[in-house]
Every structure is written in structure tokens, then in C-alpha cells.
Specification:
Blueprint: E1 5-9, H1 12-16, H2 22-29, E2 35-39, H3 50-53, E3 58-61, E4 79-82, H4 92-97, E5 101-103, H5 106-125, H6 128-136, E6 155-159, H7 163-172, E7 179-183, H8 189-193, E8 198-199, H9 202-208, E9 211-214, H10 228-231, E10 239-242, H11 251-259, E11 265-268, E12 288-290, H12 299-317, H13 334-343
Helix pairs in contact: 2-12, 5-7, 5-12
């Protein structure tokens, strides 16, 4: 490392994750000679400015938006290390053109999110919230309007068969699902088959599943991809689960599906607008379990997200590609290659 490698911590960490990220920075970056870190200055409207970015070699990022304008004229920054796996607030193509790597933390996230999916499946199928309210209201089992659903013999489906979905299917293998199916044009059938998962068309996932889980990133291809035409295919006894991104679903269509009984219920940890606005129609429904995009925020996820993000930063500081690299095309960018060479002390 030929000079100090400066890491900027995005301002939203100090507001939205205070006490949950500092240990990783201290433990991973603190002992490394030639690496320093500190808070970035406040960014207007939560959007990074070129002036702020260009003061750092690496960005330790939570939810800061990084647009094409954000990287105009930026020469120093080499990596944006995202604390998590979603990057819908980041213009990936613009980063690539500017010679900036984007890295995420897939290993840290997959188990906690898979657990969150299964938690919602159990909660909706066993009427957990209704049972809780019944007891708190002085009632008992005879006051319940109906029985719960069985996982054994049912069909678990996923829109997407990537890192998190595969972990979900692995964990669900012993729960008695009769069939596990998924749609994903980017996954080879043999890869899915190794998990006992059958790749099928998207319409089949909605038509034949008893539980449909959303496991795709939010991007131009997936924004609003699920709507009434899919929800109407579902069984009236089926449940819809979303821990991915709210904007993948046309939320008004989902509300209607729940209100009109196209489906039995839903478990949601993500929404089109977050925080969920007061008085939102979803908050008035009894057949939906809601969580504040925090169901996967466990002690392990907080610890491992920070560690994995820091290790992405340190790889670049050594002049190496980060292990969680998203935009692999940046490896061919001469500007990024020059940055790595400089960190290796070659230039």
C-alpha cells in the first residue's frame, strides 16, 4: 500500500445502525497499518456528491444513493463496499465506467434472510398473530376462526434461485415439503437439481405453490415484475412471502389480492415505500404479517455484514479484487486496474 487508504463511512450508519457497525470497523480496519476510516460529511438528500466520494479510496455504505452524477470526475474512489446485498440505490453501470468496484456481503446475509423467510412461513401458516391477539384479548382456541395450514405435503416455490433462495431450500429440506420449485433464467437446471429443486416457468411457481417466496434483487428487470396477473394464479389457500425488495411487487395489486381473498395471506418484511406510511392499507389487514425490514437483522448478520464488507475494502487496499465483487466488468477497466496497481505499490 503506497499511501493511506481512506475509508468513508456513509452518514446513515450513524442514524439507522448506530451501535451495530462500529465493532467491525474497529476489529477489521483498525489494526491495519495504512488504513484509516471515519464518517463522511452529511450528503444532501441522501445522495453522494462527487466532492465527498473523491476524498476516499473506499466507501463503507449502508443506504446512501450513488448516481451517475455522484461519480462524475471522481478519480480516487476504488470501491463501494455495501453492508448487505441490495444495491438498487447505486448506479452500477456508472460505477463500472468510473473504475469503481461494487462489493456486497452475500455470505453474511444468506442464512439470516433464509431464516426470516421460514419465520414468516411459520407465522402465516400457523395464524401466529391472530392466536396472539386472541389470548391477549381474553379468548382461547375455540374463539379462533379457523385452523392453521400444514407445511408437510405442501409446495414451496421461489421467484429466483440465487444465494438466499438456495439457502432457504437447503433449510427447508427437512420440513416435509412435497415439492420445491423455482423460476430463474440465470440458473442452470442441474444447479437447482443438486438441491432437489425443480426449475419451472414463473407462472407455474405461482399456480402450483402453497408458499411463494420472492428472492430476486431490485433492478430495471425486476421492478414491478409481480402483479395481479401472477397473484390471480395462486391458490386461494396459498401464502405470499417477500423479504427481498418491496418494489419488485406492484403493491396495490397485492393489497387487492389480500382484501379480496385471491390468496390466504402474506408475510412481508419489505415495502414499496419504507418506512411503511401510517394508515397504509396493509396495516388494516388481519391476513398479513408485517416486519420493518429488520426480520433478518440478527446479531450474526450485523457482525458478519460488517466483517465481510471490511474484508472487501481490505482486499482492494492490498491491490486485489474484492471477494464480494458485483460488477465484474470493472476488472477490465484500465482506471480500476491502475488503482489496484497503485495500492500494490507498482505505480
Amino acid at each position: 500500500m503506497s499511501r493511506t487508504f481512506r475509508v468513508g463511512v456513509t452518514p446513515d450508519f450513524y442514524r439507522d445502525a448506530k451501535g451495530r457497525f462500529e465493532a467491525a470497523l474497529e476489529g477489521e480496519l483498525g489494526p491495519v497499518e495504512g488504513v484509516e476510516y471515519g464518517p463522511m460529511p452529511p450528503q444532501p438528500d441522501g445522495v453522494a456528491t462527487p466532492e465527498a466520494l473523491d476524498g476516499y479510496d473506499g466507501i463503507f455504505a449502508l443506504g446512501l444513493r450513488i448516481t451517475r452524477r455522484s461519480v462524475e470526475g471522481v478519480r480516487r474512489t476504488a470501491i463501494v463496499a455495501r453492508w448487505g446485498v441490495g444495491y438498487d440505490r447505486i448506479d452500477v453501470a456508472a460505477l463500472t465506467e468510473a473504475g469503481i468496484a461494487l462489493a456486497t456481503t452475500p455470505e453474511a446475509v444468506k442464512r439470516p434472510v433464509a431464516e426470516a423467510i421460514l419465520a414468516l412461513i411459520f407465522a402465516v401458516s400457523k395464524n401466529l398473530l391472530l392466536q396472539d391477539r386472541t389470548v391477549r384479548g381474553g379468548g382461547w382456541r375455540g374463539d379462533l376462526p379457523g385452523l392453521g395450514a400444514d407445511l408437510a405435503g405442501s409446495v414451496l416455490g421461489s421467484v429466483g434461485c440465487g444465494n438466499i433462495a438456495r439457502e432457504m431450500f437447503r433449510m427447508a429440506a427437512g420440513l416435509g415439503f412435497r415439492r420445491r420449485i423455482a423460476c430463474d433464467p440465470y440458473v442452470a437446471p442441474e444447479t437447482a437439481a443438486e438441491l432437489g429443486v425443480e426449475l419451472v416457468p414463473m407462472e407455474t411457481v405461482f399456480r402450483e405453490s402453497d408458499y411463494v417466496a420472492v428472492n430476486v434483487p431490485l433492478n430495471d428487470e425486476t421492478r414491478g415484475m409481480i402483479g395481479a396477473e401472477h397473484l390471480r394464479l395462486m391458490k386461494p389457500s396459498a401464502f405470499f412471502i417477500n423479504t427481498a425488495r418491496g418494489a419488485v411487487v406492484r403493491e396495490a395489486d397485492l393489497v387487492r389480492a389480500l382484501e379480496e381473498g385471491w390468496i390466504r395471506g402474506a408475510g412481508l418484511d419489505v415495502f414499496a415505500e419504507e418506512p411503511l406510511p401510517a394508515g397504509h392499507p396493509l396495516t388494516r389487514l388481519d391476513n398479513v404479517v408485517l416486519a420493518p425490514h429488520a426480520l433478518a437483522w440478527t446479531q450474526g448478520l450485523v457482525r458478519d455484514n460488517g466483517v465481510e464488507a471490511c474484508r472487501n475494502l481490505l482486499a482492494v487496499a492490498r491491490g486485489e479484487p474484492p471477494p464480494g465483487l458485483v460488477n465484474r466488468e470493472v476488472l477490465e477497466n484500465p482506471a480500476f486496474q491502475a488503482k489496484l496497481a497503485r495500492y500494490r505499490g507498482e505505480r
